[in-house]
Amino acid sequence: VLTLTSGGCNTLHLAAHGAKHVASVDLNPAQSALCELKVQAIKRLAYEDVWKMFGEGKHERVAELFETKLAPWLSQGSLNFWSKKLHYFQDGLYYHGAMGKVLLGVYWFQILFGYRKKFLKFCSAKTLEEQRSIWTSLWFVRIFLHMPAMVFAVM
């Protein structure tokens, strides 16, 4: 299977679900470095450490784990990348890169427009129907839902 690396999620999903061979490519070397780091972390770290690094995006012992358990197994390109960017796991992995900027923008949108509580409620909703109800109650969503399709075609 040939897939876009994109941080490694699709690559790892395909491998975990029985693909005999997965070739992963990406124009952004950071995505390949992230995928490689995830693979080595899954192979060499305890579940709790993998979760902290990639589930929560922060790990207080990342430098120690990187040096002792991950770095020896990384390619030179990934080693160079993560040696410079390891601080991502101290600040919060998911607030770096282009998607990190989007997440920060969404966060500040929530704060500035008073939607933080609704977004948290949306994320903890128990059913899809509850999520729909919360989502469609937001003014900016209602505006987009009622715009003619032609407006989006012009954009």
TrEMBL record:
Superkingdom in the source lineage: Eukaryota
Membrane-crossing residue ranges in chain numbering: 93-113, 134-154
Pfam families in alphabetical order: DUF3419 (PF11899)
Keyword Membrane found: yes
Keyword field: Membrane, Transmembrane, Transmembrane helix
PANTHER family with a match to the protein in the record: BTA1P (PTHR47473), METHYLTRANSFERASE DOMAIN-CONTAINING PROTEIN (PTHR47473:SF1)
Name this polypeptide is given: Uncharacterized protein
Species this protein is from: Chloropicon laureae
